[in-house]
Amino acid sequence: MLDLAIVGGGPAGLSAAARANQRGLRYCLLEASPAHANTIQHYQRGKHVMAEPSVVPLQSDIRFAAGTREAVLHAWQEDLTSQSVELRAGAEVTGISSAGDGFQLALKDGSHVDARAVVLAIGLQGNPRRLGVPGDDPPFVQYTLDDPDECRDETIVVVGAGDAAIENALALARQNKVFIVNRRDEFARAKEGNLTLISRAIDDGLVNCFYNTTVAGVESDGDGGQAIVLDTDTAQSRVPCDRHYCKARCNPAAPFRRILRH
């Protein structure tokens, strides 16, 4: 039986594993995806990763400073190697149950891990909230944006009002016609810097914003014709588009409910 099982290879899980390794504990670091930091791996290329809140001192043995997605991932990989942290990638935990003096973790491949203690460091990237409207699963409805420069001269609708949605919309607006859908009348969840940038882009006409609006449906005729149907505060609007990115907030409770049995 191990001393510790760590579920999730994001920054919290990496930090826990580095400290466990430093203290000589018998541990395992389990990550469902093929590499560490799955959320940041799926950030758009060149995205600036913030290190906030700055008032909280860093306690981790793994470095973390604001920088580009690529710089952050590179620094973490260097630290994992230099500190001999072992990551078990592709090890998806499907259930955790009590077992004697500890816990048993069931893995998707049919194996299991026994440990006296468990650290849950589960992120949300693998559980995006879908639109939940008719027709929300065609290929042109996407939930992650890797490289905005791959999209050119398209009409794109971004749904969401948080930082990820704003950053996607701003990056795509450089060479596309972009609409952003906000179900409220302001960007209340955005960081100050992003709020300033999206407000300026809307004022300058670089991004078109639908305020007080929700998605009513997604239409696709199978011959390349596709559109998003929106319910605004005055009428229903149909927006033909080439792509649709949904950046709605994930449900933080979903991953925990999925794997915990006791």
Structure description:
- The chain has a six-stranded mixed sheet, covered by helices on one side. A five-stranded parallel sheet has the order 9-16-10-11-12. It has a three-stranded antiparallel sheet with strand order 13-14-15, with no helix packed on it.
- It is elongated and about 60 Å long.
- Mean pLDDT is 85; it is low at 250-258.
- It is α/β, with parallel strands linked by helices.
- It contains six helices and 16 strands.
- The relative contact order is 0.15.
- Helix 4 (163-172) packs across helix 5 (192-203).
- The two termini are 19 Å apart.
- The longest helix is centred in the first third of the chain and has 14 residues, at 69-82.
Keywords:
alpha/beta; five-stranded parallel β-sheet; six-stranded mixed β-sheet; 22% helix; 30% strand; 262 residues
Helix and strand topology:
Layout (H helix, E strand, L loop, with lengths): L1 E6 L3 H12 L4 E5 L6 H4 L6 E2 L17 E2 H14 L4 E3 L3 E7 L2 E6 L4 E9 L20 E2 L12 E5 L3 H10 L4 E5 L10 H12 L3 E4 L3 E7 L5 E6 L4 E5 L2 E4 L7 H6 L3
Parallel strand pairs: 1-2, 1-8, 2-5, 9-16, 10-11, 10-16, 11-12
Antiparallel strand pairs: 3-4, 6-7, 7-8, 13-14, 14-15
Describe the main β-sheet briefly.
6 strands, mixed
Which percent range fits the helix content? 10-25%
Number of helices: 6
| Series of H and E elements | EHEHEEHEEEEEEHEHEEEEEH
For the biggest β-sheet, the strand order reads 5-2-1-8-7-6
The whole-number mean of residue pLDDT values reads: 85
Spatial shape: elongated
Output the structural class. Answer: alpha/beta
Q: What ranges have pLDDT less than 50 throughout 5 or more consecutive residues?
A: 250-258
Strand fraction: 25-35%
Distance between the termini: 19 Å
Say how many strands there are.
16
Radius of gyration: 21 Å
